What does this fold into?
Amino acid sequence: MARTPVAEHEGRVRALLAPLRTRDAEPVPLAAALGRVLAGAVLSPIDLPPFRNSQMDGFAVVAGDVSPGVSLPVVASIPAAAGAPAPLVAGTVARIMTGAPLPEGADAVVAVEDTVTTEGGWVTIAKAARAGSYVREVGSDLAAGSELLPAGIRLGSRHLAALAAAGITEVAVESRVRLAIISTGSELVAPGDQLGPGQISDSNGPALVAAAREVAAEIVLEGRVVDDREAFEALLVAAIAADAELILTSGGISQGDYEVVRETLEPHGAIVDVLAMQPGGPQAIATYREVPVVCFPGNPVSSQLSFLLFVEPLLREIAGLPDRIRVTRVLDTPLTSVAGKRQFLRGRALPDGRVETVGGPSSHLVAALAAADVLVDLPEDATELPAGASVETWEL
Ligand code: AMP
Ligand code: MG
It folds into this structure.
């Protein structure tokens, strides 16, 4: 059977999920905005700084009064606090703290380091002062009405600081993609439950939930179900009731006898296919009651890799995150690869741009994947690769 190229399935999934790109904005308070994507540009309602103030602890002066060695009387002390200070009379200075409003009449600040305070409330200034020195002018960071933050950025602490500085307490962010994650397999138990004969812990569920959260999706349902069509369909219905926009499943799409996902979704027009790829050959997509379903094979490496290849890029794009990093590295040891299949090996990045493989090529090696920090992406036509060959790797 001719296997479908990976790129073709990528295109199918992209087309199936295209409607998710059009998202509604949602208002959130600043305290809940960390990591969210700004839906529109935000303009500053005020000037930053909002008033003219001192950049130093020192003395507010009239620059023209100051020459090296001059002594002037200190007539006031201005703290960083509410209120307007009294105007500064020419020929006098006012002690001023960082962030305190400059008194009217003053046009420069002399840093305390450049002064000596003398008896009787006078100060001697060592250097000349230039008008504007150590003065933070109104709007010199950003003028009122100007763009504080552009649309499409993922809000980090520095962005929240800028919003707070401008007095903005709520922003419109893109809604998160709502995912349901369903693990299928009668052999599966919840992690931590006693394993009976033939049973294994569900690792795909936790892996896919975490991988989706890493790219800012919201998990509205996490379920595990035995290989029973009715039970599986009940979880699909529950996922839709939980308002899932996208359902991801693992397991049950291969050529065995109890392929619950395939058997349930084929009557709904699922495309079930085998890709020219290892791990992760079996793949399927479907639409169930108008909700897209992307179905991954059950083996742990296959399902994690499938998410990374087919779903994560779109979620990253929606979340305003950069693409996963790919680096060309050099093989530390020779490799063989299966002709006609794009192969993903688990690797570890070494110093000097080299990479070594970890574990074998099999798709059940969940621990070896955890020991890897890159995936080595070998093209379909690769068969024998010598040490020193350049390979594409994906950072994990
Ligand atoms: P399947 O795709 O259902 O034929 O499953 C392929 C292999 O993956 C089998 O060895 C399953 O036991 C294993 N498997 C399926 N689902 C999971 C899961 N959620 N966690 C860990 N292993 C799984
Ligand atoms: Mg199964």
The two ends are 32 Å apart (CA to CA). The helical segments are 6-17, 157-165, 204-214, 229-241, 260-265, 300-319, 366-371.
